[in-house]
């Protein structure tokens, strides 16, 4: 895959739609073969490739750095957990899986309430939605849960007087992610895995027609 021709918006869209349930890459693979990019275009290509391929590792690294920085502040840790959950809701697969599990759990206690929490029916034209599909969580648009989670985490950080420390930890985690994605050379396994995921995505879209 030619990552130089892939726009940043396409990478963000792919990260939103791709499955995040895959296991993280091994530590031996994650911390091997570092080198400086030879040009700006090579750096951008490597950055986009690694952000997509090592997405689960980077998410774990982000949570680890935040947890390590806030280990003495329980409220701030809870705020970091809510932030991670809110970010996870931005992924289609995670939001849909969470919604299904919540509805199944609530169905055991109140089938009527579980039925109300089902997403509304969307009109379909030739096997595809008439408009861009909106992801629902517990009967509400996903964005509602994202905003509520971020607001609650901000309040917890502010209450624990650790907001500035959280920002420092977040900046450190993002800097580590960018440095790793910039220096880690894409290997053959990453390229083959990307091609395989592309094929699966195309086949899934074809089967929906």
TrEMBL record:
Broad class of where this protein is predominantly found: membrane
Annotated keywords: Membrane, Transmembrane, Transmembrane helix, Transport
Listed transmembrane segments: 52-71, 77-98, 142-159, 165-183
InterPro entries (alphabetical): Prenylated_rab_accept_PRA1
CC per GO annotation: endoplasmic reticulum; membrane
Entry's family note: Belongs to the PRA1 family.
PANTHER family: PRA1 FAMILY PROTEIN A3, PRA1 PROTEIN
Name of the molecule in the record: PRA1 family protein
